[in-house]
Structures are given as C-alpha cells and as structure tokens.
## 1
Amino acid sequence: MDRAAVAERIGRIIEPFNKKGLAITEDTTFAGDLEWDSLTVMDFVAGIEDEFDIIISMNQQAEIETYGQLIDAVTRLQG
Amino acid sequence: MTEGIDEADRPRVLQGAGPDLFSKFDALIQQREGLLATGVTDPFNLVMERVLSPTQAICNGRETILLGTYNYMGMTFDPDVVAAGKQALDDYGSGTTGSRVLNGTYAGHKAVEQALCEFYAMDHAMVFSTGYQANLGIISTIAGKGDYIVLDIDSHASIWDGCKMGDAEVVPFKHNDIEAMEKRLKRIPEGAGKLVILEGVYSMLGDIAPLKEMVAVAKANGAMVLVDEAHSMGFIGPNGRGVAEDQGCLDDVDFVIGTFSKSVGTVGGFCVSNHPKFEILRLVCRPYVFTASLPPSVVATAATSIRKLMHGSNKRAHLWENSKTLHRGLTERGFQLGTAEPQSAIIAVIMPDLERGAAMWEALLKEGLYVNLARPPATPANMTLLRCSLCAEHTSEQVETILGMFERAGTAVGII
C-alpha cells in the first residue's frame, strides 16, 4: 500500500478521536495539539494496529510525534 | 500560597544557570496547592503515631480503623513472627551491609527462599529487597533487545519501569482483553522471544484476570508468562498461591512475582520459577546484585509468616466473608464500586472527582477510618478512588462499624 492510501485509511480511523475537531495536517502533534492522554493513545494505536495488522511498540511510538511521522511509520511497518 | 507561580511552558531562568529542572512539576504543585487551599487534610501526608494491631492505629491522636494497608492476613503482630524477628536481631545483628552475591547472604536468606519454594511447590526462589525491585530486576533482565513484552495496560508501575529499564519492544493491550492480547502475540515477528506479563489481582479496582484463558493463549503462541501475584498471595487459591492456582493454571506460569509487604507482613520481593536455568539470574540481574540484601530480622519474620500462611485456610475464609460483607453493604448504601462482585480483598469505591474524593477521605478519617486515596496517573481511566483493603483480622463488628462510617461520611459529603 502506498503512502497516500495509508494516509487515507488513517484519516478515517483518527476522526472519532479528534474530539477537538482540529484540521489535522502532517505537522499536527498528538500530545501537543490533540492533547491525548495515554488511554486515548492506546485505543487509537490499537485501531491502527488492527486496521493494518501491524505492531507499533511503545518504543516505536516514542519516536512518533506528528501525524506525518505516523503515516511514514505505518507505511514502513507494512513492508 | 506562594506568589508568582511560574507557567509550565515558561520556566524561570536562574541567574547564571539553565532552566529550573523542577519546572516540569509546576502543574502538579499547583493542583496540590489548590486542593490544600480548600482546607482539606493532606491525604498524602498522614502519620501513624502508634500502631495498635493489624487493624488499628492512632492517627492525629484518634483511634483509627485501618482499611488501606494490604495487610491482608494480619501477620504484622503475629507473636511467632515478631519473636522470629527479635531472635534474628539478637543472633545476626541489624543488617547485612552487603549484596546477596557478596557478604549479604545469611542462613536466613536461604531459609526464606526455601520457605517460598515449599509454599509455591516450585524449584527456585530468588528474594529481592522490595517487590518493586523484583519486577524491575526480573523483567529487565529476561526480556532484552529484540524480544517482545506483551502486557496489560493497567500493569503496576514496577512492571512498566522494568520494561523501560530493559531493551525489549513493549506492546500493551487493553485491560483483561484476551483477544487484543492474542492479536498482538500473533503479529510478533517469527523467531523473536516473547514475554507476556499479567497480574492476578489488579490493585486499583481489585478485579482479577482471566488467567486460565490468557495463559493458555500465551503458551499457544510460544510466549513465556510472568504473573504478578502481589495482591493474592496467602489469600486466593486453595493453598494461597494466588489467582493462577485458583484457576488451575499455575503449572503453565513460568515466573510468579510476589512481595513480602502485603500478606506476609514485612518488606521484600521475590520471584519463584521452575525454569531449569533460573539460578543464573543471581549473577546477571542488576537490581538483585547492586543493592544490599534484606536485614536478618526481615527475612526471619518473612520465613515464619510464609510457613504460617500455608495453614491459613480459616483466616482466608474469614477474609472472604469480610470482603463480601463490605462489598454488599457499600452497594446497598448506594456507593459505586470498582467491581460488580467482590473478586479480591480490595474494594474500590469510585469518587466523582478528586475534590470530593479528598473531602470523603477526610470525612472518613474524622470518623476514625483510614482508606487509600488513589488518583491519576496511578488509576485507570483517570478515576479517583477510595481503595479499601480488608484484613483477616478485621472482626465482623469492625466491618459493620466501617459501613456506618461510610454512610455518615458519604451523606455529609454528598456522594450518596
């Protein structure tokens, strides 16, 4: 799956988690802009993992700060 | 109140120095000051002036029933336990001043490990200076770079810190969700080492894990299994070995982690296992090697207590009665509890928010009752909890007294 297709699917998953109704861009940060707590992060990551049948370990999550970095990581993890 | 509290994002720069490293605590400092400004007693600064028994102490000059100590089996004042500690102080002195692998292994340390092997019917036991260090040491040592740890999101801080200290990939799953755990196990790359970490009783809500199913799934997927039974030892299971014993899957658990600071009634932690290579951990586990061993009096009290817990079935039965009575009574009075049925000796009362939780905690203290106030981030889902842990030495009359205290305090604060 190419990056654009990954981005489109992640865009659908993130919608219910975007409680603040932000216009999400590649530079949107999860902790700073979306202000997610750890439980929200877990639910969101679980949704992504199930959609793409991948693991995003906490070690990898620590490297992902922005929406764009998430799309990159998922594109890469899918191989 | 102090004037001019710094904003968290604008740390004060000291003259000729970098930013104040304490700026990161500003939000917590402000929350605390806000809470204390309401005039409420600081719930995290209580002093036990005298301790009368496993269930009673003097706090603020007032006789107080203790309902938040994890002293499940009430062994702290057991005459045999206390006598063993005094004898060890006389015979071996006040401390070992050394590591278990140097000068810090006395006869008493071997004796308590032998008592643990017999209590759990396992081949190996390794005693740490605290339960925290047992999780820290075992987890960080056995799961290394390239290995995967799959763990419940509600795991205790010592488990998370053990994960952080090691180099394994850490993969959490939703609390007690068997399917979520299985999915993650199946996605782990071929050939990678796998460790599943579960708890028997989760200490915040007092709920238990479906260990039989979870351990079976872990084993079917080639994982080793570590279960923390800190809150079940001595109480749950036919021989008090914990939830895994109770559900009939202890033989499939590779490592049981436990503590001396709950049912055993002193301090210390341990891991028991049947793994044939287990003893090598004594040389490679840093939180075991690079700290002083437990004092002789502590291991003597622990060994005596563990051996008495093997024969504690009457006390176990009374503790279950206490747990059921308290759970039923609080439910009847309209309190919202962490579990629909009593699953352990922990009954968690859910508070609407931190302010009313602290007010209720203080009202109970003035009634003469001590419980734990638990609040985020230690709690799941940002809940504020009044956590009650029962003791086998609580009398039925004390439990009734406790229910009356809850009713009066809950009415006064407007919780019920």
## 2
Amino acid sequence: MLNLEQYELGNGLRVILNEDHSAPLVAVNLWYHVGSKNERPGRTGFAHLFEHMLFSGSEHVGNNEHFRYVQSVGGMLNGTTSFDRTNYFETLPSNYLALGLWLESDRMGFFLPALTQEKLDIQREVVKEERRQHYDNVPYGTSFERLLNLSYDPDFSYHWPTIGSMEDLEAASLDDIREFFGTWYRPDNCTLTLVGDFAPDEAKKLVEQYFGDIAPGGTFPEFDLQRRPQGAERREVFASPVQLPRLYRLYHLPKMGAPDWIYGDLLSTVLAADKASRLDRVLVHEKQIAQDVAAYILPTEASGILMMHATARDGVSIDTVEQAIDEEIARLISGGITDDELTRARNRAEIEHAHHLENYDERADIIGMFTTFFGDPEVVNTWLEPYANATAADLTRVAAEYLVPENRATSVFVPSN
Amino acid sequence: MTDRTQAPLPGPPRPYHFPHITRATLDNGLRVLVAQTHNAPLVSMRALVRSGADHDVAELAGLASLVADLLDEGAGSRDGIRLAEDIGLLGGALSTGADWDASYISVDILARYADKAVEIFSDIASRATLPEDALERVRTERLNDILQQRDEPAIIAAKRFSNLLYAPGPYSVPMGGTTDTVARISADAVRNFYGQHFIPNNTSVVVSGDIDPANAVKLVEDALGQWQRGNEPGRPKTSPRPIDSNRIYLIDRPTAVQSEIRIGHVGVPRSCEDYFPLSVMNALLGGIFNSRINLNLRERHGYTYGARSMFAYRRNAGPFVVAAPVRNEVTTESVQEVLSELRRIRTGDVEERELGDTKSYLMGVFPATVQAASDIASRLLDMELYGLPQDYFDHYRENIGAVTKEDVERVAAKYIDPERAVIVIVGNAKQVREPLGALGYPIEELDIDGNAIA
C-alpha cells in the first residue's frame, strides 16, 4: 500500500504526495489534462508541438535553460503527449525539489512572455523531423495513423495521431500557441505528483510558494467524445515499401478502467504476450505462418482500444494469417479459457503494476494518470482488485462481445514491389 | 511575493550508497552476486555467460545469438511452451539474448516465487535441450528478421558502418548474421557453442531485489553446484580496418525522406584507462540532450529530432559513432556541423561551466538510474563482464568528479579523429549525392549489402 496525501490549492491545482525515503531522489510529475483529443481538424499535432514549446523557456528561464537546470544537477527529465494528456516530469536529487517546482511553475504561469516566432519555427522543424523519423521514413511507420483514420469518424478526435499532419504543423501560428496555452495550461487542469525523499510539510510550503499565485482559467471548450458504433467492419489494404505483409487491427472497448476494459486487458495477455499465449503458440510455433503477433490495450480515456498486429512469414499470404487469428478467437469464444491462462494473465498484470511502482518517476506518473482519469490517486492501491476477481467466464464473454468484425477496423500493409 | 528571478538554492545533499553486494564463488567456479533492495516485491535473476557473438567465426556469424534464441526453447524436462507457461504461473518474464561480449538469461519474478524460478533459470543455464525442430523454426524467424531489416534505415546504416570499420570477424558482420551464414548454422555448431561456453567457470549469476542474500546464494548453489566445469574459452580479437582520410559511403534508399548519418571510427575497449574522462567528454560532446551536437543540430538548426555521439565500450575496442537522422535537404550541412563539433572539442575549447554541468549531471543522475532491481542487476553484470573492482560503484561519482578540463581536452585529441572517419549516409541518393560532393571527400556508393556500385 502506498501512503498518499492529496489536497488542492486555492487555484484548483491537485497535489498528490507520496513520501518515500529509500533513495535520495524526488520525482516531480505534472499531468495536464489535455492531449490530441482536444485538437480540432486543421490543427492536428498541436498538443504535441506545444509540449516541445514548453521546453523552450519561460519568463525567468532562458531558451534551452530548462534542460540545463535539470541536467546540470543530475536530474532526468522529459515530457510526452498522448490523446488524453500531456505529462512533464523530472527526477532530481531530493535536495533540488525547489528547483523542480520553480521550473514547472514558471512555465505554467509565465510561459507567454518568453514565446517567440523563432522558437516556434525551430520546434516546428524538430517535430517534423520527429514525424519523419518515426512515421514517414520507416516500414509500417504510418500504420497507427491509418488505423485511427479508419477506426474513428473525422469528428471524433482519436481520428488522428498525436504527431499530427505535416500541413497542420506547418500552419501552426504563434496565436494558436497563445490560445492553446490560455485554454489548457492552468493549475485547475493539472495534477502535480511528488514521490520520494521529502518532508511533506516542507514540500507543501514549497508547492504553495511556487504554484499558489498562478490564476485558474475560465470554462473549458466542449468536446463531443461519444463514439458512434461502426455498424460494420472497416477495412483497407495499403501497398507500401515493406518486405512482409502485416495486419493491424483495432477493436473498440469501453473506457479505460471499466470492468470490460480490464477483462480486455487480461484477454490480450491470453491471446498474445509470450510463447505460451494462444496466438503465439498457434501462429508462430505450430503453424509457423507468422513472424510475430501481438495484442495489447492502450491506456485511453475517451474510448478503449485493443490493438492487434501480426506479420506474415515470407511466402505466406496475410489472408492465411488472418484466418488463423479468427479461428483462434472463435475457438476461445466457444471453448473458453483455462484457469492456468487466467492465472498467468493476472500474474502478468501484477508484475507490471509492481514494475510501475518500483521507480519513483514511473510511480509518480501512474499516480498522475489515476488522478487525472479517475479523479482518485488511491486507485493505485486498488488497481489490481478487479484483475484478481476476474473469472474465465468474464474474459470469454468480453471476447464474444467485442472481438467481432463489426467492432473492429483492419488495416493490411502489403509490399508495393 | 515569490522571487522567481533566481533559481532556488539546493538544500544540503543527502547521502547515497550503492546497495551492498554479497559475493560467493562455488567450487565449480560459478560466481554469484546478490544485492538486496526493498522497493518492490520483485526479484531479478541474470546469468551472464562471458562469451558472445565475438566468438562467432565469420562463416557462422549469428551463431551465438541463435544459441541464445534457442535457450528458452527447452531445458531440463520442459519444452519451450512449458517453460513459458511455468514462468507465467510464477508471475515472471523470461528472456534470453546475446551481444558481442556475452550471452544472457534473464528472469524477472514476483519475489514470493523466487525459489521456484531458480530451478527453471538454472535448467536453462546448464541443461538447455536445444531441440533441432526449434532450431529450424528459429532459423526461419531469423531469416525473416534479416529480410525485414532491409527496410530499416537505421539498421542498414549501423550494419554498413560496422562493416566498414572492421575486417571480417567480430564487430564486422552483424551479430544476428547474414542470410548466408544463418542458413549454414548446424545443430552440431549450436550444441558445441553451448557446450564450450555455457560452463560454470565462464558464468556469473546475479540476483537482485527483495530477497535475502544468504538465501539467494543457497538457492543458486543448490541448483547449480553440480554443474560441471569446463575449459575457459579464449578471448577473440578484432581487426580494425585502417582509415587514411574521410570518406563518404552513400547507400541509396529511393523512398527516404531522411538521411541516416553515421560518422566515426574505432573507439576504445571498456578497459581503457581513460574511461572516466571519456565518459565526461562524450556526454559534453553528444552523449546527453544538452550536449553540443544535439543543441547544434536540433535546437539551433532544427535539422533533426535528435543527434547523439557514443563510444560503444566492449571487451575489444568498439566504434565511436555520431548518429543523426536528418531531412534530405540538410544532409550535407549536418555532416559539416558534426565534423566541426568534433574538430572544435579537440582544440581545447571547453568551458568550465559546461564541464561542471556535465560532471554534475553524470554524478547526480547515477542514483536515479539504479532504483529498480533489474537496473541494479545490469550494473552488477557490467562489473562481472568487465572485471571492474568490487567497490567500483561506491567510487563511481568521485571518479567522475576528478575529471579535469585538461583531461577532457587530452582524451578528445587522443580518441577522436574527424579527419580519418567513415561517413555513412543511408538516404535518397538522387537528392543528396550532389550536395555531399561539396564536402570534398571521396564518395563511394554501396548497395544495402555493402557491394560497390559501379
């Protein structure tokens, strides 16, 4: 059990403290409840571009100085953007807690005065290179983007990936940045989590000192995040310079944390997590038709996602692979799963959760996630309960209900030459 | 009012101690290291066999890594599926692998099952069955891997770069082998490699996490005490190719929207006496985000998402390399900027502030990198693999702290040579060929297998 203390500042900033003196370190972690799902068509990639801008200095912190302040005292830091949130974090020697709070509060409250066109132009180029490196210049690089395009209607903002499109990145202006900052970057849209070697009274004083005078914002814009059922399977075949055909699937699930999402998580382990999982065993080991197969869920807030992909071996048709996957899903639905399979899946969830808590930085991050998505940091202490209570019948039912053609999108990459 | 104009001063530093290491050597020569921690109810177990792909003869490149892939395909009385099932029932994850210097078996397990996991772990180390049908399957998987790598620009660049730095032998051909060499590997070769190298006196076992050290040693002794000793294998040498002057090797990838750049030459072995000054110098040059090369290419010019330099420290001298993916249009400029950073650091132009920042980074960050049981295990493996002193991690920070400006300048001049470097570009030749000519270095065009294009 983690010992957590939570409270709120007058301006709405949620603060979670987890005191732990086993290492002379402190993790400072901020979850802003904004991500690519808060973008509009024509301005995709904006939340992530904005994350880059937030490392380029603020009123009292020079350009590139944020990284320097943290690294020069032996800290590690980064930020990431997803559909639902943007996180910023640093792990510091614990005697530098005040430095971390100073830096984070300066960019939360005093970012705009340091904003320049030149900084935007540089970071725009950096992000375009990030897109080239991870999407456009590598095999299957655009697979997730294609699958999202297929799975979600254009008015549902999971329709595009966080990286955004080149055209939209090109179009982003300083005014966009200012508006986005004003709308989303504010204490009442943020959870600050501190984990590690500090005295809570002292930490609270510092948090109040640095964050207490930052003003909250007005109302939040509305986003309609009710997904319409697909009705029928959505499919595409895409010819691309790859050596081996690969199949990608996205199955819709309820929101993260819902019972059926949890069962979907366990189910993904039963299907494909190690050599003994169903799809691995049949496709890779017995029939030897697939080079690899994977199934996993994503921690998404607005709508649940179970992903699957499989690569055909050289000389094997991707249809053969797809047929074998569907046969195994059908077999699972009709024959159920064994107690051993359930035990292994639960064990995996337990060990993954334990790994998340092992390092201060990851621990702070999942506490931030539980607070942001579920409004309650204590979920970190109860997270495994529904996993422990899941039955084989729960998993089979979820397979029968969700792993059906009308609830999925399938994108197939085939070699273009 | 809060004064925001100045960075707040730190409090007094809190002490840090690397976990205590319990050591034992069994009668058969197996070394055991245990570090106890209490962060999480987890235990990491590692077997380090001090032979890796450096033992592959050129015609059988890929052997060590294929043996590693076969380790979890059967051991003791269990077949591969059963191994995965039983480890899964204990709440664990099992993996095996090889690099240039060593072969590894890794088990991460819920602490309450550690005793049962030791049995499986030990079977894999000492009683792997290496079944022939699994060899054929794993071989086909490997050939498919190699096929897929033909589309991966970063992998193409790394393979060509290594091949240009070293003559046939270790570090030259990819660790995973080539289509030809992998096809040639026989079941006998696999069994011989396992028999020769997987012996207790060539192996260290590391256990870290939530486990009593005396108990851990006893568990390992009970499971592996009867393992038969063998002849300790020799240590293969590499053959670096001489480099007279800078030369560009261009590999065409017509669909490329970025150039994968690799610039460098042979570096130093892990045992290099200048390891600490080199660590500081490289971090300052291109080893961390706020290093010269990354700030130049990324933050000043916006050419790349990230550029890095590194020394690959291995038993023999591994490469020194600067790596950067950049958009096609700025390929030449990026090569130019990297070379000018390499030249600049050799001229003694090191500022006290950047040196101080870099040293404090390396010293300060160390505790944050050894929180998890698995991270502590990795450090103990390094100690065993490279014969580091028993108190190495107790003095690591002091050793970094002792590095001077003169040291950094001396090792930069000694170990970095921007006039005798291999420059590999995997990119859109049509677009980058002509601009690259402006650099004045000879350009050789290669196909992705390294054959010269006339």
